Amino acid sequence: MLLIAKFIIVLVAILHIYFLWLEMFAWTTKAKKVFRKFPEDLFEPTKTLAANQGLYNGFLAAGLIWSLLIQNQEWQMYVALFFLSCVAIAGIYGAITASKKIFTVQALPALIGIMLLLLSHFL
C-alpha cells in the first residue's frame, strides 16, 4: 500500500509540474486549448497572474518530491501529508470557485494519496 501511495505522490507531483509549465511558460499558447472556457482575450493580460499561480504549483511539486527523498519514514509521511493536504485544499477550493473538473484532476488524486498513506501507516 505504501508503494501505491508513493506512486500517487509522484503522479500528483508530475501533474503540478505540468501545471507549472502550462501557467508559467505556455499560458498564451497551449493553455488556450486546455482552458477553453476562459475568454481568449484575457490570456495575455493575465499572463503574470498565471505565472505566479504556476510558481505555487511548482512549490507543491517540489514539496511532494522532497517528501519522497526524506530518509526518516515518519517524517516522510508527515511532509507528504502536508503537501498532499495543500493540494487537496487548493483543488477543493478551485472546484467550488472555478470549475468542478478541478476536483477530479487535482483534489481527488491528493485525497487518494492521503488515504493510502494513512492506511499504510495504521495497518
UniProtKB/TrEMBL annotation:
Positions of transmembrane segments: 6-28, 49-69, 75-96, 103-122
Pfam short name (any one): DUF1304
Record keywords: Membrane, Transmembrane, Transmembrane helix
InterPro entries, alphabetized: DUF1304 (IPR009732)
Protein name (record): Putative membrane protein
Protein source organism: Flagellimonas pacifica
